[in-house]
Design a protein that fits this description.
Length: about 100
């Protein structure tokens, strides 16, 4: 079974957030940036500020669903814990 990723995009520091899940992180973020749709396009979400890798896509989906239920403060704390400068992590994943 294929692994999965959850990710959080932001419009900027402490801006609008989007939580997503994918099996191919680099391709999905590229897609969000080059052909944005819906919520991502409407709010200009382009900064990849948080990522987590899981052994299976099912585990990643479960984590995504859980995080989507969190309040905003919890999501901000998660980002700040691992990425206090709100760096764009896309360059780190494409190497």
């Amino acid at each position: 079974m294929r692994g999965g990723w959850i990710y959080i995009l932001a419009s900027g520091r402490n801006g609008t957030l989007y939580v997503g899940v994918t099996a191919d992180l680099a391709a999905r973020i590229w897609q969000h940036r080059n052909d944005p749709k819906g919520f991502v396009k409407r709010y200009g979400l382009s900064l990849l500020v948080h990522i987590e890798e899981y052994p299976t896509i099912d585990e990643a989906i479960a984590r995504e669903k859980a995080i989507k239920k969190w309040n905003r403060a919890w999501k901000l704390r998660l980002i700040e814990r691992d990425n206090p400068e709100w760096e764009d992590l896309f360059e780190h994943i494409i190497g």
